[in-house]
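Quick review question:
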């Protein structure tokens, strides 16, 4: 959490606001009206001596005075309007209410969440550099911009083939190196080894989580050295980098205007990616607690679903609807199996309320498309028996992943 420096009334009010919001269980990116913000920090609870000072403190809290950046307004000019108001001795102290009370605002997420959550990737297991060969037929003759374009538009829909694979664990952050620069990044979901070489060249492929693929202004060797002092230079050597320096890397990536390939994670894209994921490893699922993986561009934060994890849950369910095994949909043209979809029993949007990752097999249910639509759209009398049944089936497994929740709470999420 960011420390607040200022200690005048407006800063104290903002601290009180954060405290009250945390008590309620906050959601990052929740939109409030200015009146709603004020109602969370009423005058009588504020310790401020008189009502006029309280109103002035609110005006100043909403402003950009003294570089305050507590809020992000839907109407971008409001920060300046409040700054002018705060600096104007003849100001209308109640304008926040009378003129702007219905304006919409978000709390700057940097004050709400752990700082690490606002780095591009919230949990990084290890970091590797992957040198991309200009002699690889996929990239020959291409500029850095061309290759970055490939990362943005092609890689989210396909695998990254290799001739010589690294020995890496899932969850590793890959930094892609091309023409002596680091130009892209992504988190490894799974490494696949082919039984027979592809095109006579490729021995296997990396499968990256599509929503973690990002490009940024190219990083050169001396910038890498600024982070890892012992960095030997961008060569063909496949470096293993000290993960403890990740915070510095994360900050550099943000400064380099990191852009994720997929801005809107559409449900259809995701289900399609899950359907297309073929699992290479023999399936063994251990229910263990994991750190949640989020991505961020420094302002807004989003939780990541891994196609591989969802597909594992589906394979474990043997492509059946876990609410009622007799439900058949149709044969998928991709898998040749009964088409089902992956659903997070505790919806991922509530990840902020849990310490441990909700993107684990124990929380993912295989559902026929009709039951899946029902859990998202059906009325309470249809919905509740489905959720109760699924919850009963999963409660123990969720507990193994250190996710404790009761049925009332789950139902409140729907
Ligand atoms: Zn769903
Ligand atoms: Zn069903």
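Suggested answer, residue by residue:
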């Amino acid at each position: 959490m960011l420390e607040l420096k200022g200690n005048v009334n407006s800063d104290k009010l903002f601290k009180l606001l954060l405290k009250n919001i945390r008590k309620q269980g906050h959601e990052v990116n929740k939109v409030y009206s200015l009146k709603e913000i004020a109602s969370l920090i009423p005058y009588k609870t504020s310790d401020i001596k008189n009502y006029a000072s309280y109103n002035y403190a609110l005006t100043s809290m909403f402003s950009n005075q003294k570089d305050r950046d507590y809020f992000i307004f839907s109407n971008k000019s409001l920060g300046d309007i409040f700054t002018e108001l705060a600096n104007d001795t003849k100001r209308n102290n109640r304008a926040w209410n009378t003129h702007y009370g219905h304006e919409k605002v978000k709390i700057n997420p940097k004050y709400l969440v752990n700082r690490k959550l606002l780095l591009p990737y919230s949990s990084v297991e290890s970091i590797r550099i992957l040198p991309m060969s200009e002699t690889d037929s996929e990239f020959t003759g291409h500029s850095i911009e061309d290759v970055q374009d490939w990362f943005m538009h092609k890689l989210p829909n396909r695998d990254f083939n290799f001739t010589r694979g690294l020995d890496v664990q899932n969850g590793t952050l890959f930094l892609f190196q091309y023409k002596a620069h680091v130009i892209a990044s992504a988190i490894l979901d799974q490494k696949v080894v082919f039984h027979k070489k592809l095109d006579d060249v490729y021995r296997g492929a990396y499968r990256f989580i599509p929503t973690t693929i990002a490009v940024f202004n190219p990083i050169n060797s001396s910038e890498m050295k600024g982070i890892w002092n012992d960095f030997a230079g961008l060569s063909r050597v496949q470096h293993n980098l000290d993960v403890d320096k990740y915070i510095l890397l994360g900050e550099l990536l943000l400064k380099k205007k990191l852009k994720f390939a997929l801005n809107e994670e559409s449900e259809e894209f995701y289900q399609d990616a899950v359907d297309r994921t073929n699992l290479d490893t023999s399936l063994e699922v251990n229910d263990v607690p994991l750190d949640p993986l989020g991505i961020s561009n420094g302002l807004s934060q989003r939780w990541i679903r891994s196609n591989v994890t969802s597909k594992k849950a589906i394979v474990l369910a043997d492509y059946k609807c876990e609410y009622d095994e007799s439900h058949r949909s149709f044969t998928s043209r991709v898998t040749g199996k009964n088409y089902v979809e992956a659903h997070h029993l505790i919806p991922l949007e509530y990840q902020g309320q849990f310490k441990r990752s909700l993107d684990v097999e124990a929380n993912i249910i295989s559902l026929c498309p009709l039951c899946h639509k029902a859990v998202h759209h059906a009325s309470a009398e249809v919905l509740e028996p489905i959720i109760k049944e699924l919850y009963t089936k999963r409660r123990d497994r969720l507990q193994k992943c250190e996710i404790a929740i009761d049925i009332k709470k789950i139902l409140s999420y729907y």
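Why it works: The pocket of zinc ion (ligand 1) is lined by residues 343, 372, 376 (CB under 6 Å). The first strand starts at residue 32 and ends at 33.
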